[in-house]
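In response to a reviewer's request, we include the raw inputs and outputs for one of the modeled complexes. The two entities were modeled together in a single run.
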Amino acid sequence: AQSVAQPEDQVNVAEGNPLTVKCTYSVSGNPYLFWYVQYPNRGLQFLLKYITGDNLVKGSYGFEAEFNKSQTSFHLKKPSALVSDSALYFCAVRDRNTGFQKLVFGTGTRLLVSP
Amino acid sequence: EAQVTQNPRYLITVTGKKLTVTCSQNMNHEYMSWYRQDPGLGLRQIYYSMNVEVTDKGDVPEGYKVSRKEKRNFPLILESPSPNQTSLYFCASGILRGGGEKLFFGSGTQLSVL
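The model returned the following structure tokens for the whole complex.
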């Protein structure tokens, strides 16, 4: 079975500091990994994905994520946080050998960036 | 503009009163899905549809129905709502392309069942 864990309910960071939102996953085969962001009163928006290739994936709004197969992790990072980055972030995974419909989401991590 | 449109945005109802939440997408996507979002539980899939007239259960289908008579529409039906169905609901759509998928979400429907 596929699963994803986001160990932190909330991450607090000061504006201008680097941020990391953690995600670990479990699949039986090779993973497809995703990050989505949810701003207040909005639906989720796609940020970035890892399918294959370079372990460092760059996405929207200056975010990037690093795929680490040995640690089964896909942490979301940004070098310098903005107040406007405050939102709810979801990691998602599916096994490469399963279908699109098997995408599993984590429980979400709330990022709070203070001025 | 490419979008997934859900209606209504907010809905308060009483136990047992049938309701429908509509979802429409204008991107000609084959795949559509419904999720519910609850605190501490993240997004859980209710039903999904791979194409017109093809629907299947997700992880939490009890108490819900769906239909896919047209490619653009995927309504969620609660025949007899109960308070444990109070939740934030999201519709999503996407193209079925191995590894290339990207889901587009509606703005959500906040449902309260009294």
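As requested, we also summarize the result in words. The interface with chain B takes residues 32, 36, 41-46, 49, 51-52, 90, 96, 100-101, 103, 105-108 of chain A (CB under 8 Å). Chain A has a mean pLDDT of 94.
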